[in-house]
Design a protein that fits this description.
The complex is a heterodimer of chains A (about 190) and B (about 140). Chain A is of the alpha+beta class. Chain A has two domains: about 35 residues; about 150 residues, Glutaredoxin (3-Layer(aba) Sandwich). In chain A, about 40% of the residues lie in helices and about 25% in strands. Chain A has five helices and nine strands, in the order αβββαβαβαββββα. Chain A starts with a helix and ends with a helix. In chain B, a hairpin with a 7-residue loop joins β1 and β2. The chains are: A alpha+beta (about 190), B mainly beta (about 140). At the A-B interface, α2, α3, β6 and β7 of A face β2, β4, β5 and β8 of B.
Amino acid sequence: MTKSDSWKGLVVALIFAAAGLVTYIGTRDLQERPDRRDFELQSVDGRKVTLETFKGKWVLMFFGFTSCPDICPTTLTNMASTLDAMGEVARNVQPVFITIDPERDTGPVLKDYLANFGGHVVGLTGTAKQIAQAAARYQTFYSKRATDDGYTMDHSTAVELISPEGVYLRAFRPDEDPDDFAKELLTIMKKAPT
Amino acid sequence: MRGLIFASFLLVAGTAHAEVAVTDAWVRETIGAGRTSAGYARIVNTGPADRLLGVGISTGTAEVHESREQNGMMRMLPVKALEIPAMGEAVLKPGGYHIMIMNTGLKRGESVELTFTFEKAGRITVPAKIAPITATAAP
């Protein structure tokens, strides 16, 4: 072995050691800092609700508004069909609908509206600031737009999944086929440590 | 003979509207004091290309809209004219083109009339069933 060869060997060893360290720090970071996205909102009967409230349940979260004619009822119906397709396990899943239009969607309005979608969707509202904070944490955008007869809301429509430990996992498209959606959720739930 | 050919031409021209048909029209119920909803239908064209210029409703007001994703947000934008391809169809369905209905309450089980106005085929009025809010297709 020449002198230059041993230098090369040392460099290679150092690179491997550095890569290992980066991987180690990366994993440790993931384990120690799970993606928890806290929020504080209100239930339809005015009680305080936070991320902690849903501990122990898988949460499917969707931001919308009740005077939304097309996307919101379609998404809520899809979510209900997805839960039906999941069977028994659906008991561990809590669908949550957060209004981005607290001005019109009061507690009673939300409650009446959501009762139509399988009866177990939790409706949440809050002050404009509380809703804006929750939405921002779940990469949801919305804005009010004037129309001839008042206003409507433009909004992001992703369905967000949160683990029973309160960790944000991923977003799904609102128009995902219920059977496919159910399969994907079941796969994720099976992999999760119990 | 020439007269006969001319007459049959007129007949064809006169029945041109029959080349566009609106089927499976339905609207969603409103909940509580809600005054906004959406309607859907299938437009089948067995003739040359046409355009849907607007939709009217027997109660409240209606506009053709499209749910479209822009900058990460779903927006509902008015559609000035919806192309109906020759020998083809246009489908108004949840998550895409739809009839935005405003200023009216709609009760499940009842029905309303929708009037579609086409550039060439003129006006076509069809009944539309009021389906439950959870409906995603014609009842």
